[in-house]
Amino acid sequence: MVELLWVVVLVAVLLLVAVKVVPIKRVIVYEYQKGLKYSRGRYAATLNAGNIGFSQFFSSIVPVDIRPQFVTIHGQDVSQR
């Protein structure tokens, strides 16, 4: 019984150390954005709006604005013969 208690305590301590050592980052992706998730420098997924937590070791999330933008295109001069 005492050995089982030591194993449980050891597992709890190791889990606590792992949680403190592994950097967890939180990113907020707003309604007008999509999140692009890159894992080891390659595209992995597209994420919808929300509060996203992830490990920073091998992945990153880049929020991208997807709101429509209006661009004015000026007319061209027409050459006539």
What would you say this structure looks like, in words?
The protein has 81 residues and is an alpha+beta fold. It has a domain of 47 residues. 25% of the residues lie in helices and 40% in strands. The chain contains 1 helix and 5 strands; from the N terminus they run H-E-E-E-E-E. It has a 3-stranded antiparallel β-sheet, with no helix packed on it. A two-stranded antiparallel ribbon has the order 1-4. The mean pLDDT is 88.
Features:
single chain; alpha+beta; three-stranded antiparallel β-sheet; two-stranded antiparallel sheet; rod-shaped
Give a quick precis of the structure.
This protein has about 80 residues and is an alpha+beta fold.
Rounded mean pLDDT is 88
Q: Which structural category do the helix and sheet elements fall into? A: alpha+beta
Major sheet: arrangement of strands: 3-2-5
- Note the gap between the termini: 101 Å
- Which oligomeric form is depicted? single chain
H and E string: HEEEEE
State the shape: rod-shaped
Helices and strands in order:
Elements: H1 2-21, E1 24-29, E2 33-39, E3 42-47, E4 50-55, E5 59-65
Antiparallel strand pairs: 1-4, 2-3, 2-5
